[in-house]
Amino acid sequence: MKxxxxxxxxxxxxxxxxxxxxxxxxxxxxxxxxxxxxxVQEGWQRFxxxxxxxxxxxxxxxxxxxxxxxxxxxxxxxYGLANIAAFGVDRNLERAKGYFQRIISESPDSDLAAWAAxxxxxxxxxxxxxxxxxxxxxxxxxxxxxxxRYPKSAAADDAFLFLQALRLKVAKPGAREKVIxxxxxxxxxxxxxxxxxxxxxxxxxNRDLNKNISAYENLVQAIAHxxxxxxxxNSVDASAVFRAGVAAQFDAGxxxxxxxxxxxxxxxxxxxxxxxxxxxxxxxxxxxxxxxRKSLAGEGSAK
Length: 303
Description:
Radius of gyration: 28 Å
Low-confidence stretches: 1-15, 17-31
Mean pLDDT: 87
């Protein structure tokens, strides 16, 4: 094809000889190909941008070009294809499970195998859902199995979070109390992993039980333990800060804490569209306090 292009151009009298030489040399040398590791990196960048077709192309090229000494890179590319099948646009549970199982079969003791095992359950959760009791029971058992099989892995830490979130969603009798018990035990064990998410779970469970003050206190702890991106120190979730302010105002009735949180929100997220809501909420507190002072003054004069 390339040689044909050169022949065609050679027949055009207006094409300079130098250009023909450049094209011919380019055809002979070819374009330097990216390394498999670079292809995987590019694939994940495309995945994060939601460009799943391009990501799939990069992962597939990495699998095709990875040499015998690049087995871990090849498995990472397979993991990328599995995630596209599980969480991309055209989700396909069987295809995703096939890729994940391939990783587990080829490298059963690796960290990636633990993530693949979790990936199978997450794919089932996302694609099939947990609305039916039988599906919820299967997912519950699946997350528990990942924790038991890979107890020291980061994947097991995430499986624990997904398991507790599932139990809160299904909300069987006594589930919220059980979640509080298990999450509190994990925090008290001295773990440093995902403390923000653990406190978020406690906050949700306590709020569902109408323990509003505890829910607010948990939310404050979740924000305090939020993992900060070194490249973006202001990346604390604006929604979490806003929710903490609302919880302080309405759940805990702590107006001083609410004002402090709202002030922090306005400073850190000046362009957030909820800024107007924050202003209105603070005015509502001012109005409420003025009414309380007036009521107390009236009671004092009546005496």
